[in-house]
Specification:
It is a single chain. With about 180 residues, the protein is mainly alpha-helical. The chain has one domain: Four Helix Bundle (Hemerythrin (Met), subunit A), CATH 1.20.120.1760. It is about 75% helix and about 0% strand. Helix 1 runs antiparallel to helix 2, helix 4 packs parallel to helix 6 and helix 5 packs antiparallel against helix 6. It is globular, with a radius of gyration of 17 Å. About 30% of the residues are buried.
Length: about 180
């Protein structure tokens, strides 16, 4: 197993730890969860770099790396929805985009095409992870932030998600021209 794949598996293993810490609710649990979330997020950058730089790109990594990203982000967003810090419609937009893009990629594979990740998708992932980090420290006591900062994070997550989803479909609309 490659180093990049091991980092992807580490990210997957950190997700239940992240959620367990959040739900434990002990004083400072958001900060502990934030530390785990940051480590998990950094493994995404690191495993991508290692896979490309050291020619460790594998089919396992092509499948598991984006899945690990999605599960990490969705886990955090579910928690924010549950605690009332994020409206459910934002999670629905993110879920819809992920399912739609994944579906489009499956149709493309049937046609012998591979739809690579676009820069807007990478920006969406990075912006979402940064915004989720910011949201974790809001309302935690020593950092009383105005509600507008939370709303800005929600807007950035929703905006980058919508933009990247629309861009994927516009750039690859020909995928659906030959669908039965």
């Amino acid at each position: 197993m490659t180093t990049a794949n091991k980092l992807t598996l580490l990210r997957m293993a950190l997700i239940p730890l992240f959620l367990g810490i959040l739900y434990a609710g002990f004083p400072g649990s958001r900060y502990a969860a934030l530390a785990v979330f940051i480590v998990a997020s950094l493994t995404d950058t690191l495993d991508g770099y290692i896979a490309r730089h050291y020619d460790q790109v594998t089919n396992f990594g092509k499948f598991m790396d984006p899945l690990a990203d999605k599960v990490l982000v969705m886990a955090a967003m579910c928690w924010f929805v549950e605690c009332g810090q994020m409206p459910g419609w934002v999670l629905a937009v993110v879920l819809l985009r992920e399912f739609a893009v994944s579906g489009m990629r499956l149709v493309a594979v049937e046609q012998g095409r591979v739809i690579a990740a676009a820069w807007s998708g990478k920006v969406k992932t990075a912006a979402t992870m940064v915004c989720l980090c910011v949201m974790m420290v809001l309302n935690e006591g020593w950092l009383p932030a105005p509600r507008v900062l939370n709303l800005i994070c929600i807007a950035v997550i929703a905006g980058t998600t919508l933009y990247s989803g629309v861009e994927y479909f516009i750039k690859n609309r020909d995928v659906f021209q030959n669908v039965d």
